[in-house]
Amino acid sequence: MKVSYKWLKEYIDLDIPAKDLAEKIERSSVEVDSVDKPSEGLKKIVVGQILSLEDHPDSDHLHVCQIDVGEDEPIQIVCGAPNVEKGKKVIVALSGARIADNIKIKKSKMRGIQSNGMLCALDEIGFPKDVVPKEWADGIYFLPDDAKNGDDVYSYIGMDDELIDLDVTPNRGDMLSIYGTLHDLSAIYNKHVNYDDVTVKETSGKKTSDQVNSDVDENIAPIYKNRIVNNVNIKSSPLWLQIRLWNAGIKPINNIIDITNYVMLKFGQPMHAYDLDKLNGNKVTVRNAKKGEKITTLGEDNLNLDEKDIIIADDRPIALAGVIGGLDTSITKETKNVLFECAVFDPIKVRKMARKHVIHTEASQRFERGVNHSGLDEAMENACQMSNELANGDVCDDILDGTEYKISPVVVEITLTKINHILGTHLSYEQVQDIFERLGFIVHRNDDSFSVTVPVRRGDIHIDADLIEEVARIYGYDNLPSTLPTTTMTTGKLQPKQQLMRDSRHILEGLGLTHAISYALTTSEKANMFMMQNSFETNLSYPMTNDHETLRMNLLTGLLDDIAYNKARNVSDVALYEQGRVFYKDTKDQVKPSEIEHIAGAISGSLISSNWDENNKEVDFYQIKGIVNKYLETIGFNGQIDYVSNAEYPEMHPGRTADIMIHGHYVGFVGEVHPNIAKQFKINDTYVFDLNLDSLNDLPKSDQSYESISKYPSISRDIALLVDDNITNSDIVKVIEKRGGAFLKEVNIFDVYNGEHVPEGKKSMAYNLVFQNKRDTLVDDDVNKVMDKIQRNLEKEFDVEVR
Hints:
Belongs to the phenylalanyl-tRNA synthetase beta subunit family. Type 1 subfamily. It catalyses: tRNA(Phe) + L-phenylalanine + ATP = L-phenylalanyl-tRNA(Phe) + AMP + diphosphate + H(+). It is found in: Cytoplasm. This is Phenylalanine--tRNA ligase beta subunit. Its cofactor is Mg(2+). It contains 20 helices and 40 strands. A hairpin with a 3-residue loop joins strand 19 (310-313) and strand 20. The protein has 803 residues and is of the alpha+beta class. The strands form ten sheets. Strands 3, 4, 5, 6, 7, 10 and 11 form a seven-stranded antiparallel β-sheet that branches. It has a seven-stranded mixed β-sheet with strand order 28-31-32-36-35-34-33.
């Protein structure tokens, strides 16, 4: 909200520069975006009077004007504005002037006629086009008749004011008004505010209740008031009112509409005015819209409504409650009788409707943040009295209360000891009580405690912590003592889970994968792919786009999207990993999902580029399994990992996918993406893995320690076995490792054969075993004994035949 410094000074004695005031507001109340003076950067723009004008001899729209700018002789200016008129006071940019966008005005000839300046429209000297009144939108602006020729124009049109742009947070809706800002400044500077004392002159002799009735849903509008002003004269507002509005970024329309906007700026209470004679019938209803109803708004938007919209209606919608009025009952030059509306609407319903229809107005901004429930009568009285003064209207004797909700002030208990403990201060009872009273709170002291009654206008204060914040900001954050926290000093280090995450990234990057980061929001379809456990979706109430509406329950779809992005740009060799959270819900009604850390990878194409002595090789199951295995071994699971084939994942290739088990605990899976899914993502053959990082963190791991390289030679032995087809490599390796003794260091399979000279249902598997003694030279007899032991146990376990 743009706050006029001059307007503030009409109520409170401020003797500091506007920039200093803005800094104080920012340090004590809300953020300040900027402090602007509209006349800054402008030069040599003065009041002029058109003494005469003639048609340009070589143009059908230009006029040659003689302008009195307070100098000895008039100056000649050629002007093409359609509304130029003899005798009018106008805005003149002299030769050498600087106007909007730092444009310099120079003497020139226009079709052969000398022009020594420029007659200006409002937007040409810096006014935004959307605040220029309609009557001046296509021509030059006429200044008041009492403007003195040759004076700078800035004071006549409010450009000499300084505008403080407040960035009001959602909890401080009270600051979206001049009065709300004054309440805070009064407390900050401990100065009295001279608020207006308005008395309504009821001149109509009629009653509002005799001319209109209301039927209000109190769930939509807990407070709803109407009052009628008869026999109004619709015209342009006086210049002082227009200046108030356009300096706040609001376009002046006519006196009645401008009054409602002025009251909104002054009190923070949005109002609306209806043309009473355009109502169908004499009843106003506040209700939910019916499906299929339509409305044309004041902005000329044609909207289709549904049951979630809240409206004001007669026998049709005439306004979106708290957002914008309808065109059918708008105030025009022909309006004679005005129905004013002043209400409190449900902030959540207003916000949802404004977002749905993408109509965000000054009114909706205030209703969404909450308006002062106790200020409606004052706002209504001001609007009606201004209608009497500025539109010659006759104010009816009564206010029609559709609903009336009496809100009780909040009472908060707090102790001086707690205030000083939290703030680290030594404030006295008198200091704290003075701060509360400056804020307009009612204070009762009882020994060490305060009972504080908070005015209704401060809807952001509910608990003792809120009061402590009020004391801190009014006392001054700069005045709070600076102290170091009292604590035991420890050496900072990563937690085990944090260390695991960091190690995981280093390991996978060392194995050739690149770190990727994808969105946590995705589509419902992608969220339900590659599931490692059953879960309900977590959907956003108001997603920005359809492809970012559901929290992910896997990391792989994001990686597949990344691979597809690269493939579309002719990058076919892609190896990525991502570490991040997935979101699970055990029940549909669970509000907050569980956040589980996962780490996943995806490889498409080849990890190794072709060169002169080696061709690239497409990634396969064993390569990505080797990457996963090396990662798990490195973080401490060496010798504890099992891979169990699983054909149950609908998104994975049924013959090339395995569950990853550690000590019998399921921690993830690895394998090839199903060809149909790869086609869906428009990618080539891709292999992936997904691991539950939280489970890996919780499982016991072997501590890694340094081992020196043995200086004694090793002994290598080969063994070839004829086994049944159903026996796996893992089964055999487990027996070999179990019976291989302390000197067995490596077991590597180097051949698998199933063909000629091998019986049906059998296969030949050949292993290389490496033995080594770190402390002595290993002899053949020791190795032979171990090999015999291994052979006996393999024959016993699997009925193998040693070849």
